[in-house]
Amino acid sequence: MSYSEISAVHYHWRRVSEPSYDGIPGTTIEMNISIDLIDGERLKLTDSFPDGLRDAIDDARAAWAAVERDSERDRAAVARGERTGPEWLHALRALGSGTAGAYRGIRVDVHQISRLLDDVRASPSGRVAAAVVLAASGDPTVASKLRIAAGATANPLLRAGLESVADAHGDAALAEALEAIDEADRELPPAGRYHHG
After folding, report:
1. What are phi and psi of 192, to 5 degrees?
2. What is the superkingdom listed in this entry's lineage (predicted)?
3. Most-buried pick from 12, 105, 149, 197 (CB within 10 A)?
4. Cα 161–chain centre separation
5. Does residue 154 sit in helix, strand or coil?
6. What does the domain layout of the chain look like in residue ranges?
């Protein structure tokens, strides 16, 4: 069949709930595609995906779910909690330098934490906290990476926080900046928390 034989293509889909996969509820999309030919014939196609394709889709979903779990864990690892600004700064630096072992009982990979800098779902305070962890890791390229990230953000408080970390401002100023950005995060309504960056 050539393209010139087709008069119209219709496609309809619906979501169907399926049992949870690895603890994450999922949905299947049932698709029906109809192709109308110029001679009046209608061909109907359904979503009979080959097993290999369905397995690849399942593997991709599982990989995405694992990344999401890691991102949530990383956000939790750098969250302030009930700490004061100086306590939080000290704990973040210990995490970055590897002397903390497991911060708040959660083991993290410093390189994974670096993904928080670009994660628009992460709170601004989480992104600045991740910057502190990275700065403490000893990576000599961190300051330039943080300046690039700061230049790419529209949020002035986030930009100032990233620049403070990049410029290695004193502990008191940095702890104060961390507290200020965390307080600003807490004042945002839940729906707006992760869209400022």
Report:
1. -100, 0
2. Bacteria
3. 149
4. 19
5. coil
6. 3-48, 68-192
Structure tokens at 183: 């307080």
Cβ–Cβ under 8 Å, residues 100 and 94:
yes
| Residue 131, both tokens | 């910057």
CA angle 74, 22, 31 (to 5 degrees): 110
- Given strand 42-46, what is the order of strands in its sheet? 6-21, 24-37, 42-46
170's tokens? 């004193």
pTM of the model: 0.62
For 82-137, what is each residue's pLDDT tens digit? 888 889 889 888 888 876 655 455 566 777 788 888 887 788 999 999 999 999 88
